[in-house]
Amino acid sequence: MIKCLLVEDQTLVRLGLANLLNLDSAINIEAQAEDGLQALALLAEHSFDIALLDMRMPNLDGLGVLQKMREKGDKTPVLIITTFEDCDVLVKALNLGARGYVLKNIELEELISAIKQVVAGERVLQSAVTDFLLKKQLSPQLCLTDKEQTVLQCLSLGMPNKVIAKKLDNSEGTIRNHVSQILAKLDVKDRTQAVIKAINQNLI
Amino acid sequence: MIKCLLVEDQTLVRLGLANLLNLDSAINIEAQAEDGLQALALLAEHSFDIALLDMRMPNLDGLGVLQKMREKGDKTPVLIITTFEDCDVLVKALNLGARGYVLKNIELEELISAIKQVVAGERVLQSAVTDFLLKKQLSPQLCLTDKEQTVLQCLSLGMPNKVIAKKLDNSEGTIRNHVSQILAKLDVKDRTQAVIKAINQNLI
DNA sequence: CCCGAGCTATGACAGATGTCACTGTTTTTA
DNA sequence: TAAAAACAGTGACATCTGTCATAGCTCGGG
Predict the structure, then answer these.
(1) Angle formed by the axes of helices B146-156 and B161-168, to 10°?
(2) pTM of the prediction?
(3) A137: pLDDT confidence band, cut at 50, 70 and 90?
(4) B86 Rama sector, left if φ>0, alpha if ψ -120 to 50, beta otherwise
(5) What are B155-188's pLDDT values in tens digits?
(6) Positions modified as 4-aspartylphosphate (chains A, B) (predicted)?
(7) Is residue A81 a contact partner of residue A104, using CB atoms and an 8 Å limit?
């Protein structure tokens, strides 16, 4: 019997999924959490064979939970179940040791087999998901430097160059250069697109 | 026994929800559809006491289904179940005769009682939802017009004015005016801030 | 020790953006 | 029907943005 922790914020989805999975004789949802903090508390108190993690949640999101688990040395296998095909979140999740990443539109049988595979020590990625990985592999040198990260953060708060310059104690020209660099790395044409990408891909 | 049609695109959510609802002795999910077109086909062939409609779907979304139902004179009561608190969609849905509008984070018991109320001929709106209605009533001048909505949507996709103008078949100057108006209504200083606000407040 | 990477800065430039004032047309509504 | 919105457009203007070339500084690794 596979002992599962199910973490998902929407009550209906969580209860429904728990019900469905419990129908499988090999799977038992032993605990449920509706946000990241609850999940961490449950992980600290009990041991599970696998944690099924939603990404987008209030309080502490899926990545946050993974991060904390790694900090605490928690080795519970994690299968990410999310609505969104997001390359960067995927990469971050895998780097934080997630063992699987599937989209919510998966078929029930596939999900069940994914759970069993992860528990068996395998890695599970949907093909839609591996495509992204490949794309990422092919174009590496796109990492933002610390300063660029900082500037991107400011952009994401809606600051114009002048304000960023004052805040970071730089000249406006310098900030313009950084912004220009960021746009090139993110492969977008203006700050608005950069912010959209940053928000969607959790770069901030 | 209440005969239900359940329309929801994500397999896991749909099956889970069907299972949960069927646990209630008064409710029976008689048919399921995974997009709007399937839903219409089922509605044409069978009769239901209530249709549970997701909003965001491929092929034909919830509003589209409602629209078609009204055109055909289909009086099946509709309860909208959606993830998003979206003022305009809510208003449109109600205008198209939806009898209830609840968010997916509703508790199971509440959902069940909402279904029973709708079947009994009542109207069901969550308080989170009526708040929006009130806000709309109280500050009409801050409401975006349809066109402004459209433009904001384009902004949120990162389009520059020139592209928006071409897409909407307007002059660039007109788009500039609309953008200017949007900025004023959202009380922000540039398009980037507008997009941030739109994303955060689910205005899109 | 030198090279490269990251950070800073400047100036010049083209284009994009946002504001304003003003003019119409159409549609809604009171 | 008359007033009020929404919609479309223009031209002028100031400012913001993004690009490019160039150059100096510092620091860590080979």
Answers:
(1) 130
(2) 0.63
(3) very low
(4) beta
(5) 999 999 999 999 999 999 999 999 999 998 888 9
(6) 54
(7) yes
Tell me the C-alpha to C-alpha distance, in Å, between residue B43 and each of A139, B63, B66: 49, 15, 11
Specify the DSSP element, H or E, that contains B100. strand B100-103
User: Hey, what amino acid is at B189?
Assistant: K
The CB-side HSE value for A119 (13 A sphere, CA atoms) comes to 19
Alpha carbons A63 and B198: distance in angstroms, whole number: 24
Q: What is the pLDDT of residues A158-180, one digit of tens each?
A: 999 999 999 999 999 999 999 99
Alpha helices in chain A (DSSP H): 11-22, 36-45, 62-72, 87-95, 108-119, 127-138, 146-156, 161-168, 172-186, 191-200
Contact between A158 and B108 using a beta-carbon 8 Å cutoff: no
In terms of phi and psi (left: phi > 0; alpha: psi -120 to 50; beta: otherwise), the region of B169 is left
Q: Which nucleotides in chain D lie closer than 7 A to a protein CB?
A: 5-12, 16-22
Find which nucleotide's C1' atom is closest to A192's CA.
D17
